[in-house]
Amino acid sequence: MKVLIIEDEARAASHLERLLAKVAPEMEVVARLESVRDALAFLSGKPELGLVFSDIQLADGLSFEIYQQVKVNCPIIFTTAWDHYAIEAFNTNGIDYLLKPIEENRLLKAIEKVRQFSPGPLLEKILAMSATKPAHSHKSRFLVKVGDKIKSIPIEEITAFYSLEKATYLFTHEKRSYDIDFALDHLETLLDPERFFRINRKFMVGLEACANITAWSNSRLKLRIDGLENQEIIVARERVQEFKAWLDG
């Protein structure tokens, strides 16, 4: 069976390849790729693959972007250091979900899932899983800590989300910031995309935050949000057209 490994950490990729050689010597690793871009280029050639091991957080984005753009007709075993992508993984041809560091016995169980079905029935089962995605309900409120108290903030009161010094914050219409336990990448899977837009790596903004927009250098746009004047809020150039379409509804 031909296997593709998509992993941007060389040590993790080598560890996985060594484990595969031990528990599944019949599997041949045909390529090791490190980015969304490289994976798209490789998979666009429609290589014959029996299995893909795919890290989720790559240097240039989430690997889910790959499978949204190219069709992969084989099972995918996702590998990640985080557990909050599980639902989306199983909606993307995912047959299993391994947390790093990958342990030999856990890998073997995942391999057994692949072995116990013939390729035809297995593929049919996976594609059926992908076609019957559960209805998604968007997050409607966030619990935050204020001193020794807990406060619930409705999504309607939130202007933006941003990351700063390895922490993530929500910013309210009342111009207050609250620390939350969600990465922006995770928030993208939880929030209504009609209400919030990821403008760059550090900011996700709501429609209410877009009242003051000016042209900026290199064909970018700059937002000014009252209460966050000390932050440079720039729409990344590659996101400008999509951002304008989002604003236009």
How would you concisely characterize the structure shown here?
With 249 residues, the chain is α/β, with parallel strands linked by helices. The protein is built from 8 helices and 17 strands. It has 2 domains: 2-131, Rossmann fold; 141-248, OB fold (Dihydrolipoamide Acetyltransferase, E2P), CATH 2.40.50.40.
Question: Any overview of this molecule?
Answer:
With 249 residues, the chain is of the alpha/beta class. The protein is built from 8 helices and 17 strands. The chain has helices at residues 10-23, 36-43, 64-69, 86-90, 104-115, 119-131, 184-190, 240-248; strands at residues 2-6, 28-33, 51-55, 57-58, 61-62, 76-80, 94-99, 141-146, 149-154, 158-164, 167-172, 177-180, 196-198, 203-206, 213-216, 220-223, 233-235. Strand 6 (76-80), helix 4 (86-90) and strand 7 form a beta-alpha-beta unit. The longest helix has 14 residues, at 10-23. The chain is elongated, with a radius of gyration of 21 Å. The model has no long low-confidence stretch (mean pLDDT 86).
Mean pLDDT: 86
Structural class designation? alpha/beta
Can you tell me the overall shape?
Answer: elongated
Q: For this structure, what is the CATH homologous superfamily of the largest domain?
A: Response regulator
CATH architecture of the largest domain: 3-Layer(aba) Sandwich
Properties at a glance:
OB fold (Dihydrolipoamide Acetyltransferase, E2P); 5-stranded antiparallel beta sheet; 2 domains; alpha/beta; 17 strands; Rossmann fold; single chain; 31% strand
Topology summary:
Blueprint: E1 2-6, H1 10-23, E2 28-33, H2 36-43, E3 51-55, E4 57-58, E5 61-62, H3 64-69, E6 76-80, H4 86-90, E7 94-99, H5 104-115, H6 119-131, E8 141-146, E9 149-154, E10 158-164, E11 167-172, E12 177-180, H7 184-190, E13 196-198, E14 203-206, E15 213-216, E16 220-223, E17 233-235, H8 240-248
Parallel strand pairs: 1-2, 1-3, 3-6, 6-7
Antiparallel strand pairs: 4-5, 8-9, 10-11, 10-14, 11-12, 13-14, 15-16, 16-17
